[in-house]
Amino acid sequence: xxxxxxxxxxxxxxxxxxxxxxxxxxxxxxxxxxxxxxxxxxxxxxxxxxxxxxxxxxxxxxxxxxxxxxxxxxxxxxxxxxxxxxxxxxxxxxxxxxxxxxxxxxxxxxxxxxxxxxxxxxxxxxxxxxxxxxxxxxxxxxxxxxxxxxxxxxxxxxxxxxxxxxxxxxxxxxxxxxxxxxxxxxxxxxxxxxxxxxxxxxxxxxxxxxxxxxxxxxxxxxxxxxxxxxxxxxxxxxxxxxxxxxxxxxxxxxxxxxxxxxxxxxxxxxxxxxxxxxxxxxxxxxxxxxxxxxxxxxxxxxxxxxxxxxxxxxxxxxxxxxxxxxxxxxxxxxxxxxxxxxxxxxxxxxxxxxxxxxxxxxxxxxxxxxxxxxxxxxxxxxxxxxxxxxxxxxxxxxxxxxxxxxxxxxxxxxxxxxxxxxxxxxxxxxxxxxxxxxxx
Length: 440
Description:
- This protein has a three-stranded antiparallel sheet with strand order 1-2-3. A two-stranded antiparallel sheet has the order 4-5. Strands 6-7 form a two-stranded antiparallel ribbon.
- The protein is extended, with a radius of gyration of 33 Å.
- The protein starts with a helix and ends with a helix.
- Helix 1 packs across helix 2 (20-36), helix 4 runs antiparallel to helix 8 and helix 17 (321-332) crosses helix 18.
- Helix content is 60%, strand content 6%.
- The protein has 24 helices and seven strands.
């Protein structure tokens, strides 16, 4: 309005023929038309910025303040976590206040609630925070309703050690969460694994040239099972609740580095890596379709391998080590939901979100040809179709969705029948194998 008033005054000074009222009305109309034609920044097509991601710039004062506050918070959390001396203090207190009781046919050390309360009063304030009444209630072991509630000393101590381990691990992982959002991205987890390796005796002697491949194999398993949506990040609490973290820590606790049942042992990792090298006949670091067909741990069909290269990330139609690791994980753990999702995407060649009769025909033809080449009688396609649809409970018979396949508990068996001759033979002759195992 000040601008309009000034314009009016200026016009009067210029001996304008228009009256001040008419000039004001004209200017008001002109500015209204201009305002009306201005795009609305609050419209659905132009949402205003309401969040600004903090970029990790060491020169940014705002970022440095956040880092300092985060460091102080983690320090306070670390001060509340029990150290080894305090864990030993708990063990000594347990021995002082424990009593013996019969559980089944064995005599075990245990605590009544009175013993538990006395032990708690005798401990430091820091230890008392771990010995809350709810802990005792959650660990009650005896089934005698007439006697006092009892908690086994071993159960209580193992619970406390596990809780301290989880807190220490969460704190360690949080140090690599640079943005402080509770997630780890691939570079964050890679740095954590690289700094963890020297602290594990069975991994410390690893060949430096192989280190990056070991780190890659560890990261791929975490992201394969804990990042099904391919967001490129994993929630720290999800990692702690996963058995994968315990599996990784088991490598530290065991001296047997030849255990191939644990993916994270050096021996297991080298076994997968050597398979990759043996398949790479051209020595170019990538696998062609013909090379992947020679994978020694399974008898994969050509149709399935063709679909793998159509759906998975490749470079000039050749597979790199990361994609190979995903495929090995899916084939090794076929009954896991993440593996079923991975393999279902490959099997669903019509992209219809379901397995139907035609899909089974499409994949089983190769299985039938491979069986005939081995001079093994192959069942009819109709029998295989009927068997698979009987294995999975579906809303619409003849139409198996991903959710139904996972919920059936037999998803790994179903996909194995369609993509791997060895899996089909194991299923076909399962009864004979059971009889052999049960015979003396």
